[in-house]
Amino acid sequence: MSDFVSPFWGWYIAILTVVSIVGCGVFLWFQSKAKVKKGEAVGTTGHVWDEDLAEWNNPLPGWWKNLFYITVVFALVYLVLYPGLGAFQGLLGWSSKGRFELEMAKAEETYGPIFNQFLQQDLRAVAADPQAREMGQRLFLTYCAQCHGSDARGTVGFPNLADGDWLYGGDPETIKASIAHGRRGMMPPMIDAVGGPEGAKAVAHYVLSLSGRPHDPKLAEQGKEKFALCAACHGADARGNPQLGAPNLTDNVWLYGGSEATIIETVTQGRSGVMPAWEERLSPAKLHLLSAYVYGLSQQAK
């Protein structure tokens, strides 16, 4: 593996690039040495197709050769000024990273004060401000819509943020903590703990009964006893635990689906979900605006 970070490769690329460019110029020069005097007959290369289609040995037009020479010189000057020769960064010191940082600094200088005007305000007040909501929506569409959807209603495995149902709590401070620090939800496989496939099915029917969904009463009764193993996270009343992110199983809101087959799959195989942390990617002001926007979505649902 050390071979791929050796300085040799930088020199290899630089030498190969320079030789290739200079070689093009030298080749063009050699091909331009032959001159055809005015009135002198031009021969062919000896290649003939279809009996009478011949390749003539006419010299290249002067304007074309000059353009080619200009291209070679331009390439060499460019590689001296800008990166392109292995590890050599160019005399101007330009880099895509540096350009990005410069543009970000300019954007922060221009737009930072606009974002910062909301930073000292209470999240509830920011959520009620029309301008802040519009700015928060643009942030949401940029950073959150890929998982939660442009309407924030989520999809399988990604929670609906507009329905007022929260795994970790829906107050402004908790929402901001979820966005800033991320969340990691984990339900372990319970197939062995509940007694195999039949036990998983019984637990699934008990869970279905909790939210009033169609179920087999006899299986639900069997599953109720086994559910004691699940109560450690979901609570004895199955209403969940925001401290753990354990969902409420009585409200008919399902993150992965509420069918018998899906619940059995969840009990059997467990679930694992990760919400990334955004505190290192977004400024405090943007986090504040985004949190207020997400909080406002659930308030509109009430």
Can you describe this structure?
The chain is mainly alpha-helical. It has 3 domains: 1-33 and 58-94, no CATH class; 124-182 and 276-300, Cytochrome c-like domain (Cytochrome Bc1 Complex, Chain D, domain 2, Orthogonal Bundle), CATH 1.10.760.10; 191-271, Cytochrome c-like domain (Cytochrome Bc1 Complex, Chain D, domain 2). The protein contains 12 helices and 4 strands, in the order αββααααααβααααβα. It has helices at residues 7-31, 62-81, 96-116, 123-127, 130-143, 145-148, 172-181, 196-210, 217-226, 231-234, 260-269, 284-300, and strands spanning 44-49, 53-56, 183-187, 271-275. The chain has a two-stranded antiparallel sheet with strand order 1-2. A two-stranded antiparallel ribbon has the order 3-4. The longest helix has 25 residues, at 7-31. Heme c 2 binds at residues 187, 230, 233-234.
The count of domains is 3
Order of the strands making up the biggest sheet:
1-2
The arrangement of helices and strands along the chain is HEEHHHHHHEHHHHEH
Question: What class do helices, strands and sheet pairing give?
Answer: mainly alpha
User: What is the top-level CATH class of the largest domain?
Assistant: Mainly Alpha
- Roughly how many Å apart are the termini? 58 Å
What is the architecture of the largest domain at the second tier of CATH?
Orthogonal Bundle
Q: Mean of the pLDDT scores?
A: 90
Label the overall shape: elongated
The biggest beta sheet, please? Answer: 2 strands, antiparallel
Cofactor: heme c
Pfam families: Cytochrome_CBB3, FixP_N
Organism: Pelomicrobium methylotrophicum
Function: C-type cytochrome. Part of the cbb3-type cytochrome c oxidase complex.
